[in-house]
Design goal:
four-stranded antiparallel β-sheet; alpha/beta
């Protein structure tokens, strides 16, 4: 599917996710056009990561409709393995933890998924992997094992691995939360470059400055619901909802 700027890449309608008696996401609707960077912020436990994981059905909502790259599913009605694979095919995801295979080199960590998912030969996959390692500033790390890389380097490898499958939208779940500030800057720099290149991105983050500088839209969640959204220049400097004001004061005072 070829997308033009403004075409909806992700469409969520009435998403509701429960864990037992706890409602983690309350009837949330969200549209993400092609080329847009959406930053989702809010207090811990507000449902941000759960909502993100609903996009590619790592979490199955109890209610609602999901459309990704033109493919619509209603998870509560059941989703076949083929539908799930197709939906996830165009979506890359980067987690808080790096999830690299410790027994494989950096190069194999990036190449193996290409061979398994895209059917590329090892030669083709390695060539693409080396291109991406250079892009994320790790051209010299292909032969290294994850244990010999810093946390920031491992997260950049994880980003390269996701990009290797040629996604049309990237989901980031607090990708710097497990890193110290200096290493986190390495990862944010790569994400800034992706945004500048026009990659559609949905980023759950506690990095308010990143949201201010890079996001086209900031979405604020609290208690499982979206309480405010709009351009960073408005939401982060002149929020209209008291809960948003309280959250931003707490963040700025740390």
């Amino acid at each position: 599917m070829t997308l033009t700027t403004g075409t909806s890449v992700v469409s969520l309608r009435g998403i509701r996710k429960e864990f037992g008696d706890h409602v983690a996401v309350r009837d949330v609707s969200l549209e993400v056009p092609a080329g847009e960077v959406v930053a989702i912020i809010g207090p811990s436990g507000s449902g941000k990561s759960t909502l993100l994981r609903c996009i590619n059905l790592l979490e199955r909502p109890e209610a609602g409709r999901i459309e990704v790259l033109g493919q619509a599913v209603e998870p509560q009605g059941g989703v076949s393995a083929a539908e799930l694979a197709k939906l996830r095919r165009g979506v890359g995801m980067v987690f808080q933890s790096f999830n690299l295979f410790p027994h494989l080199t950096v190069l194999r960590n990036i190449s193996l998924p290409q061979e398994r998912v895209l059917g590329r030969s090892r030669k083709e996959a390695d060539a693409r992997s080396l291109q991406l390692l250079e892009r994320v500033g790790l051209a010299d790390k292909g032969a290294s094992y994850p244990s010999r890389c810093s946390g920031g380097q491992q997260q950049r490898v994880a980003i390269a691995r996701a990009l290797a499958l040629d996604p049309q939208v990237m989901l980031f779940d607090e990708p710097t939360s497990a890193l110290d500030p200096e290493l986190g800057l390495e990862v944010l720099a790569v994400m800034r470059e992706l945004a500048a290149d026009g990659m559609t991105m949905v980023v759950v983050t506690h990095e308010i400055q990143f949201a201010a500088d890079v996001a086209d839209r900031v979405v604020v969640m609290a208690d499982g619901a979206i309480i405010e959204q709009g351009p960073p220049s408005v939401v982060l400097t002149a929020p209209t909802v008291e809960r948003t004001k309280k959250f931003l004061r707490a963040v700025m005072d740390r």
